[in-house]
Every structure is written in structure tokens, then in C-alpha cells.
Design brief:
The protein has about 260 residues and is mainly α. The protein contains eleven helices and no strands. It has one domain.
Length: about 260
């Protein structure tokens, strides 16, 4: 990979991993526009680790409180809430991890088609618009319960379909369940931690057990750029939600899907 390719694709991955706009669609679009070959497994591992570091750093205070709540006896309602949040995140992660393990080859060989990505980008964008438009939704993240966590977790499994967007389907599910955009996004980002960690760990295992040569300079550059872009993306997205809501991202998904269909044509 060239230096320009590493920089552009790492920034794309970091900026789109946490937005409801499909990182896979953007990576494919970038490669098509510039005529670049597939970035390969090593690059995917590096950017997954980068985005994992981004969400860990951004939500470090929440994660520290959740960890402390399990290490010491519960002192108050806040400690109890942090405890149950860990349980809900673990339960919500199971569907995507299980289905991803069982259906990885199916997705990899049959669903990574540009036409599928284009239509899922449009289709799930319209579902996001519907979820955001139907009725007032102001539940905060502290009001999440076992049923809500499981439904959002089941929705996350749909993100295995290229173009669906992991954050897009989880935020959509959260909005349908009555959570505010901020609450839905925050739970979505916290839920990314186990899934992205699993994807990165599986990729590292494949690299370690294979004969792939690693250019460590390129690996570290891709990881750092993805981490920086991911952190900026999380902060900017949460700030934008309070000002403009989700509608601009719906419009962007529709335009992106149409552009992919135009490339196909």
C-alpha cells in the first residue's frame, strides 16, 4: 500500500466506523474512485485496533466506573447502574458475535457485492429516517433494560450485511425503542467495544497463524490515524446530534447509495 492509500483509507475507516453511514461502503467507494486494490487483512486489523482505542479513550471515565462497580460492593444507585450496564452490553454483544462466527464465510464470499452495499445503504438509511421521525423519543441511557439491550443487540447482528452500518442499525433500534439520539448513540458506541475487539482479535489470530508479512511502520500509521479519526468522529457526532439530529446522515446515506449505483451503471 502507498502512503496516500494508507492515510486516506485509515481516515475513512476511523471517521465512518462510528457514524450511521456504513464504513464498508466508503472504503469500497474510495478504492473504486482511486483504483486501489483491496487493502488486505493487516490493514483491517490495524484500523480495527485504532477504532477500538478511540472508543476506549473517549469513554474511559464510563469504563472506569463500570469496572470499579464490579470490584467493590455497591454503594449507591449509580454503582448499581454501572453494574447492570456491563451486563446489558455483554448480553447485547452475543447475537452479533455468535452470528458473525457462524456466518463469516457467507458474508465474506456472497454479500460483499457493490450492488448489495448500495441498496442496503439506501434501505437502512430510510429505516433510520423512519425510526427518527416516528413520535417523540426522550428516554436516556440510564433507562435501558434487559429487553432493550437484547433488541439492540439483535439489530447489531444486521450490521454483518455490508452497507448496513453497525452504528446505524443500533442507533435505529434505539430510536425505535424510544431513546433520545444521544442515548442511542452512546449505547451504540459502548456496544462497539466487544464487537470491534472481537473482530480485531480474530484478524490478529489470522495474521499470526498465516504467512502474511507485516510492514510495522504502515501498521502503526494506519492504527494511529484510525484512532485519531475515530475519537474526533465520536466527539463531533455526539455534539452534532444535539444541533442537527440524524436527518443529515439519512440524506447522506441516500446520496451515497445513489452514487454507488451510478458507479455500477
Amino acid at each position: 500500500m502507498t502512503l496516500i492509500q494508507i492515510i486516506v483509507l485509515a481516515l475513512i475507516q476511523g471517521l465512518t466506523e462510528f457514524l450511521p453511514v456504513s464504513s464498508s461502503a466508503h472504503l469500497i467507494l474510495g478504492s473504486k474512485v482511486f483504483g486501489w486494490p483491496d487493502q488486505g487483512l493487516v490493514f483491517d486489523v490495524a484500523t480495527h485496533l485504532g477504532t477500538l482505542f478511540a472508543v476506549l479513550i473517549y469513554f474511559r471515565h464510563d469504563l472506569i466506573e463500570m469496572t470499579k462497580a464490579w470490584l467493590v460492593p455497591v454503594q449507591n444507585d449509580a454503582d448499581q447502574q454501572h453494574r447492570v450496564m456491563v451486563v446489558y452490553l455483554a448480553i447485547a454483544s452475543v447475537p452479533a458475535l455468535l452470528i458473525g462466527f457462524l456466518a463469516h464465510d457467507l458474508v465474506e464470499f456472497y454479500l460483499r457485492d457493490l450492488r448489495i452495499i448500495a441498496w442496503t445503504t439506501i434501505g437502512f438509511g430510510l429505516v433510520l429516517w423512519l425510526a427518527d421521525a416516528v413520535g417523540p423519543k426522550q428516554r436516556n441511557i440510564e433507562e435501558i433494560n434487559l429487553k432493550s439491550a437484547l433488541i439492540i443487540g439483535l439489530a447489531q447482528a444486521l450490521a454483518l450485511i455490508p452497507g448496513a452500518s453497525r452504528s446505524g442499525v443500533t442507533i435505529t433500534a434505539g430510536r425505535f425503542l424510544g431513546f433520545s439520539p444521544d442515548a442511542a448513540a452512546r449505547f451504540s458506541f459502548l456496544l462497539a467495544i466487544p464487537v470491534v475487539a472481537a473482530a480485531g482479535g480474530y484478524g490478529m489470530l489470522r495474521v499470526a497463524t498465516g504467512d502474511t508479512h507485516i510492514e510495522w511502520g504502515q501498521f502503526m500509521l494506519a492504527m494511529v490515524l484510525a484512532a485519531l479519526a475515530g475519537w474526533v468522529c465520536i466527539a463531533a457526532f455526539l455534539a452534532l446530534l444535539k444541533r442537527v439530529g440524524l436527518m443529515p446522515f439519512v440524506i447522506y446515506r441516500l446520496l451515497l447509495g445513489v452514487m454507488l449505483l451510478w458507479i455500477l451503471a
